[in-house]
Write a structure and sequence with these properties.
Length: 76
């Protein structure tokens, strides 16, 4: 298998923080979905804001980032 070119490696490395942020958001949202009785993303987001996992712009808060670190399986 060929190694990716250096320009491709730079692109991949540049996108890793974005991918990690997306994964963090998804894992916290899934946690919130498990906690609500109504099966909807809106209810999960409302719960997440109430618990201070998401801010008013629906971005992960510091608490949400910490929760994501706890919930995600550790990669070695």
């Amino acid at each position: 298998m060929r190694k990716p070119s250096s320009s491709l490696q730079k692109i991949l490395m540049k996108n890793i923080p974005t991918q990690q942020h997306f994964l963090n958001f998804e894992v916290v949202l899934a946690h919130c979905e498990q906690r609500v009785t109504e099966p909807s993303l809106q209810a999960a987001m409302k719960y997440g804001r109430k618990m201070d996992f998401f801010d008013s712009r629906n971005k992960l808060s510091q608490s949400g980032e910490l929760l994501a670190e706890i919930l995600q399986p550790q990669c070695a």
